[in-house]
Write a structure and sequence with these properties.
globular, Ubiquitin-like (UB roll), 6-stranded mixed beta sheet, about 25% strand, homodimer, 5 domains, Nucleotidyltransferase, domain 5, alpha/beta
Chain lengths: ~650, ~650
């Protein structure tokens, strides 16, 4: 058999015969390549870059097409067929390099975006005829005349606060004036009035705001170009009053609770607005240089933000607006309002131009809010020719099934397990959270990926899903979710809370305590995933569409961004479909808000989506309980629904038998 | 000649021949009848009541038809033709008795007023379908459905503050609710939301508000019946920052002046609102008794006031709204705004229901405001078949000439003389102000009528007009307005400020100082009356209509209420027309606001009036200066314009020669 020279970066080279695995060649060369899953191609941690390669990839699981095109290969699944030069990235570099792990931050401006057609907030420079003794019309009539003669705007309305400025501004600008208006169906509303003609390159700014129960995100957008100038996110400061929506509603019912929660979320948003402004100023200072702006104090100021769109679940929207949300919590679970009229920033409490147009996008029901309608828009589900499934999984799993012709939706209370709650060593996805786990099927030793590469402190949602999947595949738990007490490893032990599996020993952890998972934790996780899967099943049944008909699964939400599809399928959270059918869309809610910020059509489409969606109340649906019970197994009572998982179970059995 | 018995009340009787004047009969009977004007029938102070009378009235000047029907006669102008019984009222009783002096307080509800057709603010009791698990529509949609099914209202809008109440209110009322709405063209706006069905007899209240430079008036009105429940007026508290509009504008331009003036006028209005509420509660307590009102704290509360209409001159409107009025003062004299959209009470700052509909009625120009457009409506000028003249004389004289086919208007700066300013012993029309003067043409001794029957402190506007007229007719001043230094009375003397005529000696006055009038004072008065008359002339010339064509003169404004027509004509302030052509309408501004408060049609008509009026800027009109100069005589350079005054001058000459 032919011998080939495999050189590893600057670590020397070895000669191996055709068919040798790259991992074996590395061992011979004394080069360490991580194999957390035990060489099954499941974890993707052994990815290496092949330069001038004579290799054959047996599997490219965990790699995107782009990764492969860039030369990446999974060392445990790649055999030598010629000379090859191999680069082994360290774990850090790897994560930053692989596109499959990369977060898409800057969205593309919608194709063909034309502010003169799409944008509802526009700026116009006007020249007025100065008044004389023969023409003593009042200032406001004079401005209206100029608007009607020099623009194609409908009739203009003006607020009292701007009426207070009109006289001085018109005279300061010597009858030249710049107006910023918001265009509605039958009338345009004056947002701002500036003396003189503001140069075109002074940006007109807007905000896309997503109020999550956990995280608030703000994008600063230049309205004419559509460019996202800066993004920022931080925890929703309401967290101190309760982690989930139900505890927030209860808090709101207490003395001043409503006002306090409103104050806190506004504080979060306004802090983020300051942050994006700072970022934008930092960016701009170098870009724009000494831009002349005779009419503005500085090239960018918060008063230039003249529009905002806001999304969030229905509870977040109620709390933002100071509207009691008590009825959302109690049967029959109704909101005070789903469709809100436009407000001004002043009414809402945003620290931007007080007259800025603020559009709170519409929700559908108590537990299907504007974050979902906006997500459906940005995911393209409402315009999809094929049946698609949209999921936004957090504390509540909101699910939408449909296509351009119909849309059904439901919300299933997944509980806090996926956000690290209800699990002893659970935590939110911050520094120190274990976000991925691989268990060696022979030794039962886990390998961990920890956020921020620090010592582990606990497990976040994606870590828990990953852990549960690995435990199930390697037999650490059985299909009923029970830990295998006979497992041949000291990691399986009786702890304070009964049987537990130790993921990290005290000397490896941040806090010096063991990190372990118990049967109770596992039960909570299974109930959570069972609720989501049952929701999906009931939706499909409600419209008589077999789940397999769904040609794509669109996963939104910041949590969804980190779910590993394979793990999700393995535990029966996600339906068993080819991985290519899954699309991870990141924060679809804020993206929908961004589209609505730019385009009136998008905004209207979200309204139509809210109107079109049929909401199915699961707690009133008899079939839900049955579906839920069936889903309380790993991956499911009916293994026929998860053929790929059935196959993997067999694979693992073979690997173990082989060793 | 036949003798007749004339009995005077309980003071005995005399026998006199046919043709004897009642005043002569009284002298014979030893009964005192006041004759301040010296028996010329000018003053009306000698009015007596004739019971079973055989008398003939030679003149009924100073008496209304109603007075004559009630038996009143002027003793100096009435001759005996048979037996008669005479009652001599004392001066106090007389003033309270004669309708010609009575102030009309309670206006008639507009004929055919139908709140279901005319009123824009209405109340409806609704019954909603409670939500269930099968019907989870949001509260707001549920309310909208009830409104569209149970009323004929257009689409409803709701404020954020009411959205905050909707959930609790609907549940508190067990899905029965009372809504108060303001109906616009394409939409209705929710003003109030009350749990349960509010009984029909709970009043729905509104306010008609007139903001005068000097006096603020508020009427509390029951919107369904149109009844004026209570009225109150007080000085505009802005007076401390300047007596006239110009000094207020200047004050507004100083530090915080704008805010201070706004605060002060709001303080005036809100104090008056409290006062009318107190009055109404006092009235109601006895009327309504133990009215059951399960849903309201008390039968009447300020939050039941759900609508207000406001009129005032343009400066008052700007200051109320906090809009800079600087441009009104400076050439070319333009307002910031004449036509205002509806506001809420909260926006304006009124202490009534925060969502109450507040309609600021429209003005025409800097010096022709909503008080005039409303006055034109309530005077009926805009619908008059004959050419009519409307005047509202205060610091500024606003004049409207027209009929149902056309309207022209102007404002002439009369200066403060008619409000007691610019005259040494001038004062506002409060207690102690001399409001009428009669001078004996033989002795030059004056008789005074003082407000509140107290000792005199000074002269108010009507007193000054009365004084000037009497001085002119009796020769105390000549037609040039110069005091006659050769007059045979010690009242004519050289004072500190030159020649002066003493009206009251120090021992008769409140402050122990002489009250006198100087040539400078007279000059100011003549300039004021000249400006008004010149305005009238220019208006008439501008449309080519001879002033005599005006078939009626409608006099509005609280000052106008007290002008004596005869005196006004005598000094050349008012055109020389038959007295019957003059109609004193009192506060036409607040009456117009009252009509607009009740009727959408009236409100629209005021808008049409504002649109229809052609404003003539006198300071840009060349003919004005000429007309003004000609009017700087008593009564005018051209005595042909004042034939009745020419005749009176002759009468006085005859009377003096006779004596």
């Amino acid at each position: 058999m032919a011998e080939h020279t495999i050189s590893f970066d600057h670590n020397g080279s070895v000669s191996v015969p055709t068919g040798t695995l790259l991992t074996e060649a590395a061992v011979q060369a004394g080069v360490f390549i991580s194999q957390p899953c035990g060489g099954q191609g499941r974890c993707g941690r052994c990815a290496v870059k092949v330069l001038d390669g004579g290799v054959r990839r047996r599997s490219t699981l965990r790699l995107s097409e782009e990764d492969v095109a860039a030369g990446y290969a999974l060392a445990c699944q790649t055999v030598v067929e010629g000379d090859a030069q191999i680069i082994v990235p360290d774990q850090d570099t790897l994560e930053r390099t692989l596109t499959s792990d990369r977060v898409v931050a800057q969205p593309a401006v919608p194709p063909g975006y034309d502010p003169q057609r799409d944008q509802s907030v526009r700026r116009y420079c006007l020249t007025l005829t100065p008044p004389t003794m023969d023409d003593q019309r009042d200032d406001w009539s004079r401005l209206q005349t100029a608007v009607s003669q020099q623009t194609d705007l409908p009739q203009l309305t003006i607020s009292l606060s701007l009426l207070r400025q009109i006289g001085p501004v018109l005279r300061q600008g010597d009858w030249q004036v710049t107006v910023v208006v918001s265009i509605g169906e039958n009338a345009a509303r004056l947002i701002n009035l500036l003396p003189g003609h503001v140069p075109e390159d002074i940006p007109l700014l807007g905000l896309a705001i997503d109020i999550g129960t956990t995280t608030v995100s703000v994008w600063l957008v230049e309205l004419n170009s559509g460019e996202v100038i800066a993004q920022a996110a931080e925890y929703n400061r309401q967290i101190r009053c309760g982690e989930d929506v139900i505890s927030r509603i209860i808090y709101a019912g207490k003395n001043n609770g409503q006002a306090e929660l409103r104050r806190l979320v506004l504080e979060s948003i306004n802090t983020l607005v300051e942050r994006v402004m700072k970022k934008a100023k930092g960016d701009r200072r170098s870009e724009v240089g000494d831009l002349e702006s005779p009419n503005l104090q500085s090239p960018i100021s918060q008063s230039q933000i003249v529009k905002a769109t806001i999304v969030g679940n229905s509870i977040m929207m109620h709390l933002l607006l100071g509207i009691p949300a008590e009825s959302i919590r109690l049967s029959p679970f109704v909101t005070a309002v789903n469709q809100l009229p436009p407000y001004t920033a002043q009414e809402i409490g945003l620290d931007i131009h007080p007259q800025a147009e603020v559009i709170c996008l519409p929700g559908v029901a108590s537990y299907v809010g504007a974050d979902i309608t906006a997500g459906v828009l940005s995911s393209g589900l409402d315009d999809a020719p094929e049946v698609s499934l949209f999921m936004d999984v957090g504390t509540n799993g909101e699910i939408v099934l449909g296509c351009r012709d119909w849309l059904v939706t439901c919300a299933c209370s997944a509980g806090p397990a996926f956000e690290g709650g209800g699990v002893h060593d659970g935590m939110r996805a911050t520094r120190g959270a274990i976000e991925a786990v691989w268990i060696d099927c022979r030794t039962y030793e886990p390998t961990l990926r920890v956020i921020g590469n620090s010592k582990p402190r606990g497990l976040c949602g994606s870590g828990l899903i990953s852990l549960l999947a690995e435990m199930f595949l390697t037999g650490v738990v059985d299909k009923g979710g029970h830990l295998n007490q006979h497992l041949a490893t000291e990691r399986m032990r009786q702890g304070e809370n009964g049987l537990e599996y130790v993921i990290a020993w005290a000397d490896e952890t941040w806090h010096g305590r063991d990190i372990a998972i118990t049967n109770v934790d596992i039960d909570n996780l299974i109930r959570a995933k069972g609720a989501v899967y049952a929701g999906i099943s009931v939706l499909a049944e409600s419209v008589g569409v077999p789940l397999e008909m769904a040609e794509q699964v669109l996963i939104g939400g910041s949590f969804g961004k980190y779910i590993n599809v394979e793990n999700g399928i393995q535990i029966g959270l996600l339906p068993d479909m080819p991985w290519d059918n899954f699309k991870f869309l990141g924060n679809t809610a804020v993206l929908g808000a961004y589209y609505a910020l730019l385009s009136q059509t998008a905004q209207q489409r979200i309204g139509e989506i809210a109107g079109r969606m049929t909401y199915i109340e699961l707690s009133a649906d008899n079939s839900f309980y049955e579906a839920f019970t069936s889903a309380l197994f790993l991956p499911h009572t009916d293994l026929n629904r998860f053929p790929s998982v059935a196959a993997q179970i067999e694979d693992v059995k073979v690997t173990v038998a082989d060793s």
